[in-house]
Write a sequence for this structure.
């Protein structure tokens, strides 16, 4: 609604329609009468559907379609919900243990209400104990996590159900609209040339909006700090190798401290019987994985990542990660690199002939056979080799010569905006939530921080 001064007005403006933004809107719509507007630079979920979901074949989707729009980056993802307060972020920084678990259960309930399968992947105490013992004997920590799996082909359905519910409750969406600037008076300058004046603002820009958020934070004088990055590869193996572990945990998490450098390496985003996909960003490409509920491959893929933190004089981990990705893109001729583990061990470049003669048939062909050691720093290559050798003691066959490695796989952690449990910043009535501001790194915790921001607003409004 426009005011006499030419401004649009609302009570709460939410920047970003990813999990954090949607759940902030959800909480406000369910428990208050505040006028809520959600703004996102991308499209509605129906218009950003990736062909991968229906065909199982990856195409080169535009970055703005993959990373932005209703549902955010998670809207086209594998849709694995990790139901722990300390995975995909850390709610214990803001809440007590009992409060954190209660919030996880609350978020989970909303997802199930809107179509997430009720099936819970959770090991029995005997299975967990046996796998933990086997991992510990190899010097690895197995992290048990209750999980639900939506599937890349069904995640948009869940997102659509949530968005439709919000619209039915009066929430307005301004899509394909960029917020150019947040002013200290909480006026939003929009790409349409209009201005939106809000009593409260929730900045939840998601991963693709992280650089934008840094600029806004600097202009507004918010306290921010660099986060680490995870750099490595995506591993693809025959599904039968991962079957015994994935029966226990859909997305098993293994944490490893490497021998040579004492670095932290982890498995991440296991897509059992899934597909490799290429991701395109501005100036470089990367890889990721999907798994579908209605279509399966004979392979399983997972990220294998080294945590990197930089200190003086260089602290900008994002620029460092992008430099690696750009080098990989150059050597791959615009495509990601693929290499057999056996070739990496022997210091030689892979060829299609060697790859096609192996046991693993790649689910992504839009790649270039090459030598990952020419892209990744020696330290990271050493961590990959040592980490997979150790993981092979827990999952026999994962470190075979035929195992395929795709590069680069890089997970960026946004600049962290300093906030307390209500997610309010040092500027009164400006709240933040989600991955784009560094307070989460996954769907469930992002959703939870959106709820916290909404509750912070309602507390200021005196709404119980």
């Amino acid at each position: 609604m426009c005011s006499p001064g030419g401004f649009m007005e609302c009570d709460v403006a939410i920047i970003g329609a990813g999990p954090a933004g949607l759940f902030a809107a959800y909480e406000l719509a369910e428990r208050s009468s505040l006028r809520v507007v959600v703004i996102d630079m991308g499209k509605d979920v129906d218009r950003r559907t990736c062909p991968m979901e229906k065909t199982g074949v990856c195409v080169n989707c535009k970055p703005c379609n993959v990373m932005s729009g209703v549902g955010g980056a998670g809207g086209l993802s594998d849709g694995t919900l990790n139901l722990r307060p300390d995975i995909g972020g850390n709610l214990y920084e803001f809440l007590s243990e009992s409060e954190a678990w209660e919030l996880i259960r609350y978020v989970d309930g909303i997802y199930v209400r809107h179509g997430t399968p009720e099936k819970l992947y959770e090991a029995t105490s005997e299975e967990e104990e046996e796998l933990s013992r086997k991992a510990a004997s190899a010097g690895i920590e197995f992290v048990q996590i209750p999980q639900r799996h939506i599937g890349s082909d069904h995640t948009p359905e869940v997102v659509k159900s949530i968005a439709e519910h919000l619209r039915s409750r009066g929430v307005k969406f301004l899509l394909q609209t960029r917020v150019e600037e947040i002013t200290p008076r909480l006026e939003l300058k929009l790409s349409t040339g209009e201005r939106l004046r809000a009593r409260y603002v929730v900045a939840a820009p998601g991963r693709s909006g992280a650089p934008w958020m840094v600029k806004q934070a600097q202009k507004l004088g918010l306290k921010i700090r660099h986060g680490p990055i995870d750099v490595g590869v995506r591993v693809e193996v025959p599904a039968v190798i991962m079957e015994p572990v994935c029966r226990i945990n859909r997305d098993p998490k293994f944490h490893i401290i490497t021998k040579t450098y004492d670095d932290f390496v982890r498995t991440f985003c296991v897509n059992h019987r899934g597909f490799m996909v290429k991701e395109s960003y501005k100036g470089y490409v990367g890889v990721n994985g999907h798994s579908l509920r209605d279509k399966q491959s004979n392979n399983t893929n997972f990220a294998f990542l080294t945590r990197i933190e930089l200190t003086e004089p260089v602290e900008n981990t994002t620029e460092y990660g992008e430099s690696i990705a750009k080098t990989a893109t150059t050597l791959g001729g615009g495509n990601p690199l693929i290499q057999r583990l056996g070739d990496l061990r022997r210091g030689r470049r892979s060829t299609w002939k060697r790859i096609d003669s192996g046991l693993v048939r790649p689910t992504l062909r839009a790649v270039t056979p090459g030598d990952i050691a020419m892209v990744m720093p020696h330290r990271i290559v050493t961590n990959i080799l040592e980490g997979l050798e150790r993981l092979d003691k827990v999952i026999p066959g994962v470190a075979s010569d035929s195992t395929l490695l795709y590069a680069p796989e890089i997970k960026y952690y946004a600049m962290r905006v300093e906030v307390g449990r209500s997610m309010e910043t040092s500027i009164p009535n400006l709240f933040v939530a989600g991955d784009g501001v560094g307070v989460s790194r996954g769907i469930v915790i992002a959703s939870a921080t959106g709820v916290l921001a909404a509750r912070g607003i309602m507390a200021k409004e005196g709404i119980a």
User: Anything to note?
Assistant: Residues 212 and 289 are 26 Å apart (CA to CA). The chain has a mean pLDDT of 90.
